[in-house]
Specification:
Blueprint (H helix, E strand, L loop, with lengths): L3 E4 L2 E4 L5 E7 L6 H14 L3 E6 L2 H4 L5 H9 L3 H14 L2 E6 L6 H6 L4 E3 L7 H8 L5 E4 L5 H14 L4 E6 L7 H4 L3 H8 L3 E6 L5 H8 L4 E5 L18 H16 L8 H10 L2 E4 L14 E4 L14 H4 L21
Parallel strand pairs: 3-4, 3-10, 4-5, 5-6, 6-7, 7-8, 8-9, 9-10
Antiparallel strand pairs: 1-2, 11-12
Helix pairs in contact: 1-4, 1-11, 6-7, 10-11
């Protein structure tokens, strides 16, 4: 059975379209108009979903820390979240969220998001993971900074309480992430070890790693998006309005490049096969009774086709045999010349 995530009208299957998430996070800077802008461009660009981050700073972060101040300043109010939810519904794009703490999980009950994200920083928060799993929604789990045992424990917790599907994302929790830190080879390892859809969460400053991850087999891509490049928060690792359409275009191109795994010529190749594959051809006039050798026959590409032409596999057997019928130069040898 294929591994899949069913999300409303969307379906993720291995070897089919990659599910692409635009991570808004707090890149709206607390302003609903910025959030609306990002939803619009994500929809126009072809993203499958957009994601928010919802946390109560008093529950999630130590007071006066950088994260505490950031979420305190930029988190959307419940009134604004309602407007964002309704707008995404109107634009017919999937909206979901990461919930940073048990208190924030109330918004899952309020909005009934079709999908829930567990971020890398929450992978050891088993009480929260348990409560999220009990919502019985498809889950995307990021694994930055995690040891294998921690991933396994989080997955076991999810599967114990959740009958829905699970996607596990390879991730490096460095912002911005340098190339040598990415290690996309883990995608292959994850596919072997974990019974889940495998994807990639991108924290680099361009789209190259996301495209490369698709070629490595990632079926879910999460990329931060922004309405404007800024040098704080997640803005610096985010795709802007110019980069977002190109990301989707290149992902779809990467999928096309991957193609099918079956070893056989494609339909276009089959059209040229008879033209490009070599045929046994006379290099000069060969009289009846003459012996075939490397001086009078060769393997050549020829535009001509003869239904009776000798199979190229018989070339070695042909050498040393007598010609049964006179052949003019540059003619395809047929079964009339040899049997």
């Amino acid at each position: 059975m294929p591994k899949s995530i069913n999300i409303k009208y969307k379906k993720i299957f291995d070897n089919q379209r990659t599910f692409v998430v635009g991570e808004i996070g707090l890149n709206h800077n607390g302003k609903i108009k910025n959030c609306i802008k990002m939803i619009d461009i994500a929809k126009k660009s072809g993203f499958d979903a957009v994601k928010l981050q919802i946390s109560d700073p008093n529950e999630s972060y130590f007071p006066k820390t950088k994260s505490y101040n950031y979420f305190k300043k930029y988190s959307l109010s419940e009134e604004k979240l309602v407007k964002v939810f309704n707008y995404a519904k109107q634009r017919k794009i999937i909206l979901f969220s990461t919930f940073g703490d048990l208190k924030s999980l109330k918004y899952q009950d309020k909005f009934n998001f079709p999908l829930i994200k567990i971020s890398s920083g929450l992978i050891t928060n088993i009480p929260l993971i348990k409560k999220i799993a009990q919502k019985n929604k498809p889950i995307i789990l990021s694994t930055g900074m995690a040891f294998e045992s921690e991933i396994v424990k989080a997955m076991k917790t999810i599967k114990k309480y959740n009958s829905r599907e699970l996607a596990v994302l390879v991730c490096t929790s460095i912002y911005p992430c340098k190339d040598y830190m990415i290690n996309l080879s883990k995608i292959s390892t994850y596919k072997k070890k974990f019974k889940a859809i495998i994807g990639y969460s991108d924290h680099t400053q361009d789209n190259f790693a996301s495209i490369s991850s698709v070629l490595m087999g990632a079926k879910v891509i999460e990329k931060h998006i922004t309405f404007k490049k800024m040098n704080f928060g997640d803005h610096k690792i985010s795709a802007d309005f110019k980069e977002m359409p190109k990301l989707i275009k290149d992902i779809r191109r990467a999928e096309s490049i991957i193609g099918k795994s079956k070893i056989e010529p494609n339909n276009e190749e089959l059209k040229f096969r008879k033209l490009y594959l070599r045929k046994i051809v006379s290099k000069k006039k060969i009289l009846k009774g003459e012996i075939f050798d490397l001086n009078n026959i060769s393997l050549m590409r020829s535009p001509n086709i003869d239904k009776l032409q000798i199979n190229i596999k018989k070339f070695d057997r042909l050498l040393g045999k007598k010609n049964l019928k006179t052949i003019n130069p540059f003619k395809i040898l047929t079964k009339k010349n040899y049997n």
